[in-house]
Write a structure and sequence with these properties.
Length: about 290
Amino acid sequence: MTWWCTGIRWTDGRPAIGWYGQGRGERESLLGYGQRLAFAARGERRCLGVRRAGKRTVCPTGATVPARAGNAQCPECARLDRSFSVAADTNAADPRTYRVYLAWFGPGMVKVGITAEERGSARLLEQGAVSWTWLGRGPLMSTRRTEELLRAALGVPDRIAYARKRAVRGHLPAAAERAGEVAELHARAAALPGWPESLERLACETVDHAGPFGLAGIPAPARVVTELAAGGTVAGLLAGAAGPDLHFADGLVLDTRLLGGWELAAAGGAATDVPCADIAPTLPEAGQDGLF
């Protein structure tokens, strides 16, 4: 039985690596900073199918996925996934409450976005937001209109490339300075006219992710993994994580979106049909190689 890596996820403010086994469901392996990781990709990278409402539908063709792709889905599964996407405005009837947020990733790198209220801060952790605050809450279409209003008025983009976020993490300004920038933008947003009446405005309460990301121990990026290949090995001491990125003590950065769809094994280890959480303990002893 094969367990396929599904990439990084954030659980209660901690990074974890997700796994999927057909007929066995989903599992995860929590990561700890200071942990030594050593793993290798095996076989071919496969499409992970579609995950919706906590359940995964297997790709009907078992298609392979290019090693450099940021999404472990074949075109057919990606199109199906997109048809249920709030981000693509294809699910306007979603009855859940949504929140509008203001996220800061580095000097001059700010965006406004929305997320389902039930997800809490998970979206901000997934995107690698260093500091952030809520702006308002309400029905989906009200939050979407607010998002578009604020983007245009504040002159902020709808997305920021991970490469740009990654490049500045090793030398960010102090927490007070980044909180001040977030508070200033929140005040500018709150003063704008045209907010939907159905949206409840929220006061500025800046949250900083320096702790969850381990920013104090993250060195400036020196090398970035851009592709995995069968038999290729990644090894090092985990210093921190932000969004999908794992930062190692030697400056290596691994975008875990590249891990999705691969079967991973402990470097040099024997074949196994259990996920990597069962190969080695979460926190190996000093000098011991471990896989997640």
